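Journal club prep — side note

Before the paper discussion, L.F. wants everyone to see what a predicted structure for a comparable chain looks like in token form. Sequence:
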Amino acid sequence: MVQRKTQTPAYWQSQFTVSNKDIEFIYNQILEANRVFTLDEIALTLVRRQYQAEELAARSEFQQGKLYQPKESYAVGEQLVFPALDFAVGTVKTVRPGHHPVHGTFNVIEVSFDNGSVMREFATNFDRPHPLNLDSNQSLASLQGLISPEEIYQTYGDDFIRPKVEAALVNSNDFVKFHDQYFLHDLLPDFHEGLFNIADAAIDINNGPLSVDALIEQMGLAESKDIIDTLRFSVSYRLANDERFDDVGPTGQVLWYLERIEPPEAHHAPRRLQVDPGQSYNVNSFDEDLKALLAEIDDEATLPEDVPSIGPDTPSVTIVLNYPHRRVGTLPITPKTETFFPTSYYNPVLFEFVDGRTGDVIPTWSVLNDKYVFGLDEWYTKNKLPVGAYINIKRTDNPMRLVVDYQTLRAQRDWVRTATVSGNKLVFQMSKEAISGKYDELMIIGESNPAQIDTLWLNALEKKLSIYDILCQVFPELSKLNPQSTVHAKTLYSAVNIIQRAGPGPIFQELVKHRCFIPMKNGYWIYDPNLRD
């Protein structure tokens, strides 16, 4: 038999398309069921449709002969197709009685293959269970050992099938979408505009997000016991297309809020966090020290495969606060922290941090697409937490509420390296800073005049300074603070990020790339300006 195309990777990767007949088929499926379908349901339905079409085509090939099944009876001269023999075709030559002491009586047919050059015998009228006997629910595919539609979708769905199905649904005017759910435009109920003014007021009075069920009750559309999924979808679809409302719930939970109340950072990454997409690095060019530091520095710009992940059962995690996140009041979402935060690929999520010392509630936003959590600026400032501070995050029984804390240090003034601006250049000196939490001594950097530093940062953006140029500027300034003139890679990372946002990987890449940077032991480096490119 000809190999089924649905069993080949090439078909799903390049040949599979969603036809107009497929769209019509899905339309009728939703119309008949009168319910919301997920994208996965629709895509799997189309895979099954292709699979079944091939099954019918395969059965039509047997017009040249009957499919051999031991339970059936056959006459001399009939042509049979044998699945166990790679669907070879043979002709019945003789029929005789057969007997088995256990299985009883049956018939035996002698069948010729290859124009009579090969003769074989097979049982017929065999009413015992046999793997070659097809029942009413069994397909030829099962006899061929083919993978099922579900296995096909599991293998090719994410990369090839889902995107094509989603594009076809979006391009059709028949369907409406909310998140990954679809319904028919013609089945949407009409809502009076005044109902959504009620929804606006209800959220405002609540001073926080409301579920779609709560809004449906407030709008007088149904009692809680009478709310059905199609109504939830229809109201959510209408809210999603009204610029006043935003879904701020995590994956699997829809919570509606008012966009006018949300901070801009819930939708737009602060400029201090924005990484040039052209930055890259090759981890194989790093020595073991740099590889370890890459995994140790908590930066969302580092490739996920270079950071150890933490499972959902880990009760707490400690990260080191870097310069960009300290400046804008955020935390990074990395494989180390992601399972702690409620997130969604569709929208920012509003959740709560609880101050581990005071119990104060801090409204916070997780923005998975840009990999940060926003809302901690006042908390950082109130607790005098510096760049390099150790921040503790702890789970609670409520996944929408986390505890945030820092490691206690008796309030004191420590000598720390401090960044200032002199002659339109970034310079460093040691000065005393008021600090109340423990910190990573290699990462900590204070700043005497943030406004001046911001001006320097904007100038660097305008001039499009490279990471290499910035390293050559800050390295001599940092090395003068150490009698050995060495500077740790972590410290260089902190210093570079004052002037330009960069992950540790691209910074380390410049260190190993240029001979003016000379590696020492344990992550320390020396700079020789005479060897500068």
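L.F.'s comment for the group: The domain at 188-262 is CATH 1.10.10.10 (Arc Repressor Mutant, subunit A). Keep this in mind when we get to the figures.
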